[in-house]
Amino acid sequence: MGPDDSVYLLSRKDAPRGQILRLPLSQLEFSKAKVFVAQSSGTGADESGRTSIEDFEPTPGRLYVIDIIGGPSRIRVFDERGRSLPGPSLPPISAVDQLVPVGRGDVLFYISTYLEPSAWYRVDAATGNSTRTALFETSPTKFNDAEVVRSFAISKDGTRVPLNIIRRKGARLDGTNPVLLTGYGGYGISLKPSFAGSQTRVWLDQGGVSATANLRGGGEYGEEWHQQGNLTRKQYVFDDIIACAQYLVDQKYSSPAHLAISGGAMADC
């Protein structure tokens, strides 16, 4: 329930990428609910058209919305009339897993990235600025010499499939790098950015490259993305991972002799 005597609801009825409804407490009939934040268009030249709403939090004068866009997150902010306000800046290629209001309209976000341990960030409602708090995880594993490249492979049917590539800065693209490609496509489960950790650190130190593919069957673009890769449509998941492997070869990250794939349910189906 919001501070304006209204109930806010995340609905996927006729909105597979999610929409937020507002229902006044004085009229608690679902038929009276109005669309406060519409679902994304599902089209467009960039990823924003395919974004899916994951969570939200109403605060005094603000509504914070967590979107998932192919794996990473985005935060949108709306005022009490549903007008868009500037959203807080987030670390690049990061995931927002929790949102907690802390008074005066400020909120805390729990943010994860591939190259830094997770941390809580505070957003100042008055300025929109976000700062890391003293609540953060630490690790002896450092990735100061590494970077994450977000790319897209084109699957067999023309679908753009996100691919997140962790490599050492200045890595040579000559087709000789050992590459470990990870993918999952099932049950609406999304592969979001999370700290790569010691195993990836050792892999990079041995000259390897790590890649994570956001395959159909997951929830990275909402329920439609999930449905496109389940049951009789499972072949799309295999098409997607093959396209990602081919992309890594075409872009000279690796070669067929130096590329390996690991996965969970995707590989078992």
How would you describe the overall organization of this protein?
The chain is mostly beta strands and 269 residues long. The protein has two domains: 6-136, Methylamine Dehydrogenase, Chain H, CATH 2.130.10.120; 146-268, Rossmann fold (3-Layer(aba) Sandwich), CATH 3.40.50. The protein is built from four helices and 16 strands. The chain has helices at 197-205, 223-227, 235-250, 265-268, and strands at 6-11, 19-24, 34-37, 52-59, 62-68, 73-78, 84-85, 94-101, 107-113, 119-123, 130-136, 146-154, 160-168, 179-184, 209-214, 259-263. It has a five-stranded mixed beta sheet. Strands 4-5-6-7 form a four-stranded antiparallel beta sheet, with no helix packed on it. A hairpin with a 5-residue loop joins strand 9 (107-113) and strand 10 (119-123).
Q: What is the total number of structural domains?
A: 2
Strand content: 35-45%
- Could you give me the name of the CATH homologous superfamily of the largest domain? Prolyl oligopeptidase, N-terminal domain
Oligomeric organization of the protein chains: single chain
Average pLDDT, rounded to a whole number, is 93
User: Termini separation (Å)?
Assistant: 41 Å
The major β-sheet equals: 5 strands, mixed
Structure class: mainly beta
Per the principal axes of the C-alpha atoms, what is the gross shape? globular
Low-confidence stretches: none
